Amino acid sequence: MAARIAVRYGSRRFSSGGKILSEEEKAAENVFIKKMEKDKMEKLSHKGEVSGGEKHPEVKPTPPPTSKVSTDKNRNYGVLAGTIAILSGIGWYYASRPKKTEQVQED
After folding, report:
1. Which parts of the chain span the membrane according to its record (predicted)?
2. Which residues pair with 49 in a beta bridge?
3. Torsion angle of alpha carbons 85, 88, 93, 97, nearest 10°?
4. Where are the domains positioned within the chain?
């Protein structure tokens, strides 16, 4: 949501050669954007339906995630890579330490 607002702000700011939109133009643009978003959401909600309002047998709605497990594939890879890097660094640190050998002193 924040990214969408930032894109709108940036597009307004830098479009039309730096022209700042009037209040009426901003309102018209906001109405247009909301309408497009509403249409997109309606298309997505009707995607699983067959003509006549029946649900398609192969399309199953996904339930909202109830656990705190991430479903973002890239984030999971990043966490895994970071964990491996940290463990490798610790292993390298302990492997590179000089071995202490006990020397027998003779009198």
Report:
1. 77-95
2. 55
3. -160
4. 1-46
Give the amino acid at 19. Answer: K
Cα separations in angstroms, 45 against 4, 40, 41, 50: 20, 9, 6, 12
Tens digit of pLDDT per residue, the chain (107 long)? 667 776 776 666 665 555 666 888 888 888 999 999 998 888 888 775 544 555 555 556 666 656 676 677 788 888 899 999 999 999 999 898 877 776 667 65
Cα 44 to Cα 34: distance, rounded to the nearest angstrom: 15
3-class DSSP state of 101:
coil
In this prediction the pTM is 0.30
Q: Hunting for tokens 């009426």 — which residue is that?
A: 24
Token pair for residue 37? 């978003």
